[in-house]
Amino acid sequence: MAKPILLLQPGVSTVGEGAAGFNVRGGRTDQNLVLLDEMPLFSTSHLLGFFTNVNTDVVQDVTLYKAGIPAQYGGRLSSLMNINLKNGNTERVRYQVGAGNISARFMADGPLGKKLTFMLAGRIAYPNWMIKRFPDRIKNSQAFFYDLNAKFRYQISSNQQLTLSTYLNHDDFKFPDDTVYSWNAKAASLQWNVQLNSKFSVNAAAVYSSYDFQMEGIKEFYRFKFQSGITHKELKANLIFTPSPTHKIEAGGSTIRYDVAPGYRTRVDDESNINPRAIPSEQGYEYSAYLGDEWNPISWLTLQGGIRYAAFELIGSRTVYQYETGMPRAPETVTETKQYGSGESVQKYNGWEPRLSIRIGVTKAQSIKLSYNRTRQYLHLITNTTAISPVDFWKLSDNYLPPQVADQYAVGYYLNLKDNTYEFSLEGYYKDISSLLEAKNGAILLLNPQLETAIINARGMAYGVEVSAKKNKGKFNGQINYTYARAFVQSLSPYPLEQINRGNWFPANYDKPHTLNIATTF
């Protein structure tokens, strides 16, 4: 099985939990951006977390940015995991098949003529035969997933190519005689790359990604169906100018359209005691433009800086509630409503996101990196912690829920020995987060048409130290990562009854002080 390559680059870190998961630096899963050939993924695992949602057979390389995030990327607070898929080989068609106790996989790649190559891969899981051997409380459960990857690359000319990548997955899980959960993801990207000359290159992409979650209640007299989802449509373009081997300038921009279905619930039959309910869908646009510069003026110094401007607009149709001044937001304190028509602008946000990182080469084997970056997140993942199995749904920033903003500072020491056979890193960071969302005590989040009455504004703080040791070559290799990380939240409500922990700092739900990861290969 192909092994993904974790690239250690200036401004890139793979230590701590980020090397094995997506929950890094005080950020929940909604605060990490996972790109698969430019396609954003909204689900990150299969089979309740036992499998990654990306088939490692098709991975060419993985780059995890947790500090010094390039100005090209934004939209999330915690980290960026950029995954590139393999291209089909140009020599001959090859096949690869494998099967295990609970899953099987296949992969095929090769040429389709002189200029076109393909790669096709898939996985399927069949754990139910094993689940049946568990005790009675568990054996009536069911679980299943499959995923498919495809990539076609057309070489238009020696300096121009067109690439189409697609991704499809399905998961479902059933509790005994209770509830069936299922979710689907579909994504595609069409990328055009051209090398204009030795100094200029251009790449453009059209991206589509959707995620749908379904829940079906199967208990007698309480049968229902619930569904929520999100769709991401994006156009982006980048221009790269390389005036010299030690200097690279990038500029570009993107436009994203979001369509969010917070959720709707329907009856399955007339005998059901469940009341139907639907929350109106949301639409919004995110615009961004950036300018980045990477310069290596002398052999031991690398400077990487940039500026990104991001703007967001929520559009109708929408109903906005007005609340009594000086009183907590609640259904009882509504004073009036304002209606917005389809396509009408409801709320706007914007701001600058500066980025800066400095890499100092102490010796050929040692380096020190300093970085600062600001990011904004206009998309929120709302977690309903009162459910037996958490039901999450997406929410756009609006009049009462502003975008989250994070400022992160990091410093790291890196050591490579024996031609990169051994790698060691030590990195510390501090992050300040504003406009976090926290649920009020006893809040109802799911199917709440006035979600702002269940949410209060908060600020966050995260800090930690990450240590990593890695062996890359030889028959026996692997890595050990340890992270000490803290994440705290402070509610900012002016009303004492709404404050959490009396307005004092408290550990966040995703606060995990100690994390140890060990991975080996023989």
The separation of the N and C termini measures: 13 Å
User: What fraction strand?
Assistant: over 45%
Describe the biggest sheet?
20 strands, antiparallel
Q: Tally of extended strands?
A: 30
Count of individual helical segments: 2
Radius of gyration: 24 Å
Overall spatial form = globular
Helix content: under 10%
The low-pLDDT segments are: 1-23
What is the SS-derived class?
mainly beta
Give the integer mean of the pLDDT values. Answer: 90
Structure description:
The two termini are about 15 Å apart. β27 (about 455-470) and β28 form a beta hairpin. Helices cover about 0% and strands about 60% of the residues. With about 525 residues, the protein is an all-beta fold. It is globular and about 65 Å long. Residues about 1-25 have low confidence and may be disordered. The strands form 5 sheets. It has a 20-stranded antiparallel beta sheet that branches.
What key phrases describe this protein's structure?
four-stranded mixed beta sheet; mainly beta; 2 helices; 30 strands; 20-stranded antiparallel beta sheet; disordered N terminus; globular
Kindly summarize this structure in a few lines.
This protein has helices at residues 128-131, 136-139; strands at 32-36, 39-40, 45-46, 51-52, 59-65, 79-85, 94-99, 103-111, 116-125, 142-157, 160-174, 179-195, 200-217, 224-244, 247-267, 277-278, 282-298, 301-315, 318-323, 334-340, 345-361, 366-377, 379-384, 391-396, 404-417, 422-439, 455-471, 477-491, 506-507, 514-521.
